[in-house]
Automatic annotation (TrEMBL):
It comes from the Bacteria. One of its GO terms (biological process) is regulation of gene expression. The lineage of its organism: Bacteria, Pseudomonadati, Pseudomonadota, Gammaproteobacteria, Chromatiales. This is Ammonia monooxygenase. GO terms for cellular component: membrane. Coiled coil: none annotated. It comes from Granulosicoccus antarcticus IMCC3135.
Length: 349
């Protein structure tokens, strides 16, 4: 590691923290994520040597998010009744419609080959989709499309929450730095380290969220161990995700940035409108707030969308549970569709 690289990381961290604090003072929704995201993206556009944080740090934050989600997932499973399958069926239906609409859209509007357009259309997280992509081409374009989508989802849902009356935290700075709670720091640290090692060994797409979420859910359901990571852990995760996503968006393919940005933005807005329609249809059937159902059906990864739910004080367990089912569906069906498209493209060459 060179001194120059350390200096670039230091600049990234300074911009992220500074942007988060400024957003907090300006009363932005989810300030630590949005502030750090905007600050890093604008700095890159201005030509500053901002460098994306080490991938290992993002993985540790995904583990922390998974541990945070586990107790909520366990509670949602215990309290859910016959209405949960409606939400899962809606999520899988939207996923299927998204692919059928999105693949020709990105092939035509972004000029991508069908396999890359297929990956752009899948409404999953960045890590999962890049794992499906393997060493195929157009990785930068796929990353760009999904990074823009995540930004739009996070910003729009945060603003919608404020519009719908989700109350802001009374003292946001002190609340975001709170550490003390009933969870033993040794148990929490041990669980995070164990889950990180296990997720690294398994090496499956999305494992850095799924593995800790399942293990902490089992601990919450079958033991008396109180698993409630302090708010500071969530704040650090928001800060890191904001810096990472902001850097990914700004480091996109500059020569075709406008084309991909417009294609991804229009598609994301259309899919979010579809998710809103499904959420409104589910409100009479499921005893949940519209915003919870909207988050559960919104395009995006488990970590990003669930983190928004946690930050807004919503039922993150329900959101994570539905997204986990969609994740399993994509992991099962996605490689089959991608393999078929690649063979089809090879046969036409």
């Amino acid at each position: 590691m060179s001194f120059r690289q350390m200096g670039c990381w230091g600049l990234t961290l300074s911009l992220g923290v500074g942007g988060g604090v400024l957003a907090l003072l300006l009363h932005f929704p989810i300030p630590w994520m949005l502030g750090s995201l905007i600050a890093c993206a604008l700095a890159i556009f201005a030509g500053l040597p901002v460098q994306t944080l080490p991938i290992a740090l993002e993985r540790w934050m995904r583990i922390a998010i998974g541990v945070s989600l586990g107790p909520s997932v366990a509670s949602s499973i215990q309290l859910s009744g016959d209405d949960l399958p409606f939400a899962i069926a809606a999520a899988l239906s939207i996923t299927t419609l998204t692919v059928f609409i999105g693949m020709p859209w990105f092939a035509r509007q972004a000029g991508l080959p069908r396999p890359a357009a297929f990956l752009c259309a899948l409404p999953g997280g960045l890590s999962m989709l890049l794992a499906l992509a393997g060493d195929s081409g157009n990785r930068a374009e796929v990353l760009m499309v999904h990074a823009v989508r995540i930004v739009i989802v996070v910003v729009s849902i945060s603003l919608l929450a404020r519009f719908l009356g989700v109350p802001p935290v009374p003292d946001p700075l002190l609340a975001s730095l709170e550490w003390h709670n009933d969870t033993s720091p040794f148990v929490l640290a041990g669980l995070i380290v164990a889950c990180f090692i296990l997720a690294e060994k398994l090496n499956i797409a999305g494992g850095h969220v799924i593995v800790p979420m399942v293990l902490s859910a089992m601990l919450a359901a079958f033991t008396d161990i109180n698993m409630a990571p302090p708010t500071l852990v969530k704040t650090l995760a928001l800060l890191v995700f904001g810096m990472v996503i902001g850097s990914e968006v700004a480091h996109g393919p500059r020569d075709r940035y406008a084309r991909f940005f417009v294609a991804s933005s229009l598609f994301t807005i259309a899919i979010m409108c579809l998710a809103a329609v499904f959420a409104l249809m589910l409100v009479p059937l499921i005893d949940q707030h519209f915003l919870v159902l909207f988050l559960a059906l919104a395009p995006g990864g488990i970590a990003e969308v669930s983190l928004v739910a946690l930050a807004l004080g919503l039922d993150a367990g329900m959101v994570a549970l539905v997204h986990s089912c969609r994740f399993i569906y994509i992991i099962g069906v996605g490689p089959i569709g991608l393999r078929w498209l690649r063979k089809s493209l090879a046969s036409e060459a």
